[in-house]
Amino acid sequence: MSIDSWSGADEAWERPQPDRAHLRQDLWLALGAMVVIALGAELMRSLGAFDEEPHGIPWQYLAMASLAALVAFRRSRPVLVTVLVGVHMLVTGMVLPMTLSTLPMQVLYFFLIFSGVSWARDRRALVAAVGLVLTLMVAWLAWTFALGRGVQQMMSYFADEVPEQIGLFEVPVAVVGFTLLNNVLFFGGSILLGQLAWNGARRTAQVVAQAATIEAQSARLRDQAVVAERLRIARELHDVVAHHVSVMGVQAAAARRVMDRDPAAAATALSAVEQSSRDAVGQMRELLGTLRSDDVDPGMPPAPAGAPVPPGDGAGRSAVEWSPSGRSPQPTLAELPALAERASTPTCRASVTVVESAPGAAARVAPPVQLSAYRVVQEAFANVHRHSTARSASAVVRVDEDADRLEVEVVDDGTARVGTSGTGLGLRGMRERAHHLGGGVEVGPRTGSSGWRVRVWFPLDGRSRSAAAPASAVVG
Asked: Of 52, 127, 148, nearest to 97 (Cα)?
């Protein structure tokens, strides 16, 4: 690992500048440090430790005050503080060695080097500053040992005369080794702990940034869920209104034509108009009620139509599509015969056939897929009434559990009416439903005969498959 990589010089992240609260804290900390090192010096003085100090009390307090003052800038000017600490240590060690050696002064030196490493924003400048401090300390120790006076002075701390060898090392070697070990632990420890603190701040900043990103993405997902729910409701409203209004128009026209010669047939057609209007109002009330529901947790996005849910409730009843308000179930495959009956008119007969690979297979299809298949048949029958001269329209729904596939095919035997081209929203809604549930669509004229053909397929659980059927397309 290179120095740049270890120190963070190659990282793009930069530790933020301290705010005013931090600067006030450092100012108070500097005053506290001055009190502590002054107290330590006076206690040592009372023990006679400063009797041989070459300079007097004013110089000692100048050294202590200048070092304590650096605490106030440890976070705002960390690289400069690191350099000044090295210079201060060198000068104080040569001029006031006993002042330097007091424990509060040593702790403060350690703390300032630690602060410089942990708060430096320009990591390359920090590497240069730390290198300068270490060079100064090594040069000072080498110069002291080279003169010989350093070893003799250190040995005199143990006894007035040079003691005989007791341990593994000779006394001069032990003195030099002990001094080097202390300096390695002192400078190495302050630098290592400072780097660990910087790494911790960087990781914390990354976690905060990731949390902000996740929150922003969650907000976008909630917005997308809201849009998806609005599109779902728009599709449902289109299918409900288009189908029922189309049936009502056809039935009303049929009643008008046969009112004079066949009142019974006219009454039947008008009854169909009445029933279709009630169904339309009821379904629209259910759909619009989801927009006003207060039962949805505001912290959760709306569940999208087509989200797979377990089929059935374990008691033989078919599950319903997700509903935030617990309203009546949405249409299922079991209601297709009733749909065909309502869609039949005196001029066009509609029929639905459900083919199952095994008994009860249709009831086991995921509710969103059942609803989408129902809406596809409903929209196809409505299109036949609006745009075709067909006399019959038939829908076949095939449920194949072995192939994990539900297929809807609707065909008619008519030709397109002139001047009845639609907006395309119905076909677009079919494609959106199929795509959302992992299926596909084929729409176009029937090959070899008159009429129109709509074919839609879904996986039974409504989940997308990597090897799904061909992409939806409009042919013809």
From this structure: 52
* pLDDT-derived band at 361, boundaries 50, 70, 90: very high
Model confidence band, residue 287 (pLDDT cutoffs 50, 70, 90): low
- What Rg do the C-alpha atoms of the chain give, in angstroms? 43
Query: Token pair of 135, please?
Result: 């060079």
- Confirm if 243 and 264 have CB atoms less than 8 A apart: no
Residue 398 per-residue DSSP state? E
Q: Which residue stretches of 299-359 are H helix?
A: 336-343
Q: At what angle do helices 171-258 and 123-147 cross, to 10 degrees?
A: 170
Instruction: Name the nearest CA neighbour of 476 among 454, 450, 443.
Output: 443
**Highest-confidence segment of 29-33, 132-136, 236-240, 294-298:** 29-33
- Mean of the per-residue pLDDT values for the chain? 80
pTM of the entire structure?
0.53
Is residue 392 a contact partner of residue 349, using CB atoms and an 8 Å limit? yes
E strand or H helix that includes residue 444 = strand 440-445
Residue 371 near residue 333, CB atoms below 8 Å: no
Contact 455, 441 (CB under 8 A): yes
- The total of other beta-carbon atoms located within 10 Å of residue 329's CB is 16
In degrees and rounded to multiples of 5, residue 171 shows phi and psi of -60, -50
Give the residue from 66, 188, 186, 74 showing the smallest Cα distance to 120: 74
Q: Which residues contact residue 403 at a Cβ distance below 8 angstroms, ignoring those fewer than 6 apart?
A: 357
Q: Are 258 and 269 in contact (CB under 8 A)?
A: yes
